[in-house]
Amino acid sequence: MPELRNNRAKRKLKNGEVVTMLMGGPHPPDMIDLMGQFGFDSVLIEGEHGPVDYGHVPDLTRACDLWGMTSVVRIGANRPEMIYRTFDLGAQGIMVPHINTREEALAVVDACKFAPVGNRGMGAGRQAFGVTDYFRKANDETLVTVLIEDIAAMDQLDALTSVDHIDVFYVAPGDLAQSMGLIGETTSPKIRSPKIFRSKSRTHRRAAGRR
Questions:
Q1: How far apart are CA 79 and CA 164, in angstroms?
Q2: Which helix (H) or strand (E) holds 174?
Q3: Which domains does the chain have, with CATH numbers?
Q4: What is d(CA 32, CA 35) in angstroms, rounded to the nearest whole number?
C-alpha cells in the first residue's frame, strides 16, 4: 500500500537541523523540478504576494514531491477554507501571515489539523490516495508556519508562541518595520531587538526572515 510522503522539512526541524528553502519565485513546475537536484529541503510557493492561485497548487506541489522537497504554500489570510483547501490540493506545509494573538494562532492550528487536534475539513485530496489511516498520519506530517510581522504581536509573544502544533514562528522584518513606522529599515536595532526573538516558550521554533 502507498505510504504518506515524509515531510523532509518538518523532520529536520524536529532534529534541530538547518532547513533550506527555495524562495523568490514565482517558480513554475519545470523550474522546481530543475532545482530539485540541488538538494533543497523545501520550496515556498507564493500565494500571498505572487501569482499562485488554487489552480496552480497541484502541479507545483507534485514537482516538489518528485524530489522529496516539502511544498510550503504562503496564503493570503488566516481563513480556514483557504488553509484546508491548500492542503487538499497537495501542499505539505502552510505559511499564514499576520498572526498577532494566541487566538489567531489557535485558529491556524484548528484549520490545519484533523480531529482530535483541530477541525480541518475532512476532504483529503491527492496526498491521501491509497494511504491507510491518512487523517492521523496527516496530523503528524503537516508543517505549520505562522508569520509574525506586526507590532501588535510583540506584547503577545509569550502567549502566541505557547500554542502547540505550530512548527515555525517566522519573524518578517519588512512588515514588522512598516508596522513600527520604520518602513524599509529592516536592519534597525528596534527591529533586530533581542526582545523580538526572546520568549519564555519554544525559542527553537523561531526564525528570522528577510521580508
A1: 19
A2: helix 173-179
A3: 8-208 (3.20.20.60)
A4: 5
Q: How many angstroms separate the CA atoms of 19 and 151, rounded? A: 27
Residues 21, 34: Cα–Cα separation, whole Å: 14
Of residues 189, 207, 61, the one with CA closest to residue 147: 207
The separation between CA 161 and the C-alpha centre of its own chain, rounded to angstroms, equals: 15
Are the beta carbons of 161 and 124 closer than 8 angstroms? no
The helix/strand/coil state of 205 is helix
- pTM (whole model) above 0.85: yes
Q: What is the overall mean pLDDT for the chain?
A: 88
**Distance (Å, whole) CA 18 – CA 103:** 29
Count of residues for the chain? 211
Residue 125, Cβ neighbours under 10 Å: how many?
19
Q: 110: pLDDT confidence band, cut at 50, 70 and 90?
A: very high
The reply to whether 49 belongs to the active site is: yes
pLDDT in tens, 17-37: 999 999 877 778 999 999 999
184/202 Cα distance (integer angstroms): 29
User: Which cell goes with 145?
Assistant: 508556519
Among the listed residues 49, 56, 98, 204, the single catalytic one is 49
